[in-house]
Amino acid sequence: MSYSAFDPSTYSTQLAEKQQRLRELLAPFNAPEPEVFESPRLNYRLRAEFRLWREGEDRHYAMFAPGDKHTPILLEDFPIASQRINDLMPRLKAAWADSVLGFKLFQVEFLTTLSGEALITLCYHRPLKDDWQAAAKRLADDLGVSLVGRSKGQRLVIGQDFVTEELSIAGQSYSYRQPEGAFTQPNGTVNLKMLHWAYDALGQREDDLLELYCGNGNFTLPLSRRVRQVLATEISKTSVNAALANLDDNGIDNIRLVRLSAEELTQALNGVRPFRRLEGIDLAAYQFGTIFVDPPRAGMDVDTCELARRFPRILYISCNPETLAQNIAQLQDTHRISRCALFDQFPYTHHMESGVLLERRGEMFMG
């Protein structure tokens, strides 16, 4: 986000422009009018990362405009970030005046939750020794947070290296471990709206769900209540470990999680090659009725699109509406859009999150 673009008075206009852009991108596919889910105007972002910038004897939180690493935007607070981050910023700044904590500190990262937990990562251009650990322990206790210290070849944890989010979807509570350094949804309030929409769009099913790009299980946990069983895949080791912990913490036993990329799973389902990581899993025993995908900005590759075509229903969450439209163009001869939505995860930017439910045209047997 360009900091100069932050202006809550323009929010409604910016959101209307995104809605029109999504409407135009999906118009060739006769999409219904998108459901629109707004963001809070302030304090919506649960993650923030700042460089430290020195002016004389003082150091400040700093951000930079895209493409400009030499002209800092100095900050005392950050109104788009959670209230917890804003409360911690001045207290942490006071603490780095301590030479042990502040010496060669160059970057600070905050990770918070809607439920109030916080993790701070401090990044250094020097080795961290016992005196740093003692000072960091006092600071963590004082702030009521966990701390991670990072320098070249070092990663020291004070407390835990994750936060735990608590979310309620359709009357059921879920806890999510969100590890330091792993991807999590930045806008917690809009993430909740996405989860509710996906839960409703999937509906109650008597068949099985295949999920690609499952991350830490953000969607996997609530969607598992809507189907008989779930096979979920993710390639990031950190996210897989978090997802496995989340399954255990929530007592969910109808999900099998496999560390495979979408491309690898496509090869396995097509019988191109076997994978040791699928040992003990009988793919033929699944009765998949829906595939759920939340791909990176590049969207689904051609082969994964062709795999998705075999499913009666495709539930697709996208962080890039252009690649979403490209994927739908590949699928439109067999599937139609029955629902679509705009989730404003990133206010005051051109970025948007969107969702579509694609259903197979007519009655066609899933091959």
UniProtKB/TrEMBL annotation:
GO terms for molecular function: rRNA binding; tRNA (uracil(54)-C5)-methyltransferase activity, S-adenosyl methionine-dependent; tRNA binding. It catalyses: uridine(54) in tRNA + S-adenosyl-L-methionine = 5-methyluridine(54) in tRNA + S-adenosyl-L-homocysteine + H(+); uridine(341) in tmRNA + S-adenosyl-L-methionine = 5-methyluridine(341) in tmRNA + S-adenosyl-L-homocysteine + H(+). The active site is at C319, C319 (nucleophile), E353 (proton acceptor). It holds the Pfam family tRNA_U5-meth_tr. The keyword Repeat does not apply. Belongs to the class I-like SAM-binding methyltransferase superfamily. RNA M5U methyltransferase family. TrmA subfamily. This is tRNA/tmRNA (uracil-C(5))-methyltransferase. It comes from Azomonas agilis.
